[in-house]
Design goal:
Elements: H1 3-6, H2 9-15, H3 18-59, H4 65-74, H5 81-97, H6 104-127, H7 130-159, H8 167-224
Helix pairs in contact: 2-8, 3-7, 3-8, 4-5, 5-6, 5-8, 6-8, 7-8
């Protein structure tokens, strides 16, 4: 078998030492999981953006708030995050408005707290598993580098028993070690790109939620005067 045949990717993986194979297997598993969550988060964030756009159009169309609230209650399975924030705030507003002796500013503070609690749950849901992508992006290259260092050490130990070190003897061992680094980068790069994109999109959605909560609180405050 010549050097070119020895450097085939599949052969390099099969001929690697046990530790390097374990590193490659771990990185391959992590890569598959990161791609799974990349697609899941992409669909989730896109859906959140679309439902937020739809609710904002409905809210600012000038319709009755009570009707909008009733629609949100009746269709909770298809409601978006901003709609659920609105629902929690308007429910609290309805409850507190019935207390005639309650100060309007105190009632609005209660509405804001109710919306803030729902807001935090929705943002936590959007940010779920982003930490996993960040960890994959930051740790995978080092795990791959560990496999490479171990593989090179294993290769040099094998050379100790040879009287003459040739390229044909050295190349396969070095190459199979470097495959671990390549797999680590293959796992890390998409995870880093996806994390940065999703974190940016989540921040933009969070700003829209916060702006809505402030504007909705102002509307309710004017109604209580």
């Amino acid at each position: 078998m010549n050097v070119a045949q020895d450097l085939a990717i599949i052969d390099l993986i099969l001929q690697a030492s046990l530790v390097v194979k374990l590193v490659m297997g771990l990185l391959a598993y992590v890569s598959v999981m990161s791609w799974y969550w990349i697609f899941r988060k992409w669909f989730q964030i896109r859906e959140a953006q679309q439902r937020t756009d739809k609710f904002e159009r409905d809210f600012w169309s000038g319709g009755d708030l009570q009707s909008l609230y009733q629609s949100a209650v009746n269709d909770r399975h298809h409601s978006g995050a901003m709609e659920r924030i609105f629902e929690s705030g308007f429910r609290e507003y309805t409850k507190l408005r019935s207390q005639k002796s309650l100060d309007p500013s105190t009632a609005i503070d209660g509405v804001r707290r109710a919306m803030r609690a729902t807001y935090q749950r929705e943002i936590d849901d959007l940010e779920a598993h982003l930490a996993f992508l960040a960890s994959v992006g930051s740790v995978s290259p080092y795990v791959g580098l560990f496999g490479t260092v171990w593989g090179i050490m294993h290769s040099f130990r094998g050379l100790a028993s040879m009287t003459t070190a040739t390229l044909q003897a050295v190349a396969p061992g070095i190459a199979e070690a470097l495959v671990a680094t390549a797999i680590g980068l293959f796992a890390a790069i998409p995870a880093v790109v996806a994390y940065n994109r999703f974190a940016h999109d989540t921040d933009r959605i969070a700003v829209r939620f916060e702006s809505f909560m402030e504007e909705f609180s102002n509307i309710l405050q004017r109604q209580m005067k």
